[in-house]
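Hey,

Quick one before I head out. I ran the complex with NAP overnight. Inputs first:
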Amino acid sequence: MTATIALITGANKGIGFETARQLGAQGMTVLVGARDEERGRAAESALRESGADARFVQLDVTDAKSVQQAAEWIEAEYGRLDVLVNNAGTATIARRGAPPSQTSLDDMRAVYEINVFGVVTVTNAMLPLLRRAEAARIVNVSSEVGSIGSQSDPASPLAQLPASAQYPSSKAALDMLTAMYAKELRDTPIKVNAANPGYTATDLNGNSGFRSAAEGAEVSVHLATLDASGPTGTLWGYQWSPQGAYGTLPW
Ligand SMILES: NC(=O)c1ccc[n+]([C@@H]2O[C@H](COP(=O)([O-])OP(=O)(O)OC[C@H]3O[C@@H](n4cnc5c(N)ncnc54)[C@H](OP(=O)(O)O)[C@@H]3O)[C@@H](O)[C@H]2O)c1
């Protein structure tokens, strides 16, 4: 049987690394997207030691040339792509941003380059390969902080967070991209969903999250392995509730 081929961007650490580890443990060939070769190769080695069929692929989501080269390499090696997890993201630039009234446009553009435009660059480069798979899955790693429904609901814990423009709006834009790609691809077997890992302890938040990276990654893994009856065009994942349940979230 041919292995399922999965590309995870930003897979050298955090939720992306754990997603690669869990998909690799299911027998998938995991392509470890990383912008830095040293960090990517270290992740590849660690994943191989854990038994996964992992291969590093250099990929900076803000560099269209590196993305195109990655697509050409995947085509030459495998001829198709079954799973794309658009995981690479940043919030660290945004944390300097403070409230909307004091937003730095330079910082905002830098966040959007990775969290929004990077996803379009990677998805469009990989779509020809995803269309060649039997039933490809695209997972866009978003966040509940991009949910307009939750942020504007006074009863939601998210409404208690300080207002900021850059990171939340980048994830709201990513949610709409998810809905629009799902719409474009609705007559194909390809499913496109946005993942909410929940507040997860990684470098993105100085390891302050209350969930582990492995728990956060379970959401991407679930959406990457949906069967034919699964949804498309949803925001799915951790619901910020005392029970810590998984489910569909409001856009
Ligand atoms: N942690 C949370 O609580 C949380 C909650 C909701 C959503 N998320 C989302 O989950 C995803 C993963 O974040 P994380 O928490 O695992 O953070 P992380 O540990 O900081 O990992 C971020 C990953 O993205 C990579 N990356 C950043 N810019 C890139 C670029 N231009 N090209 C390629 N890769 C790039 C980083 O690579 P380098 O090592 O080279 O910087 C790193 O591998 C992000 O999309 C984030 O927004 C996280």
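The beta strands are 5-8, 29-34, 53-58, 83-86, 137-141, 191-196, 235-238, 246-248.

Talk tomorrow,
K.
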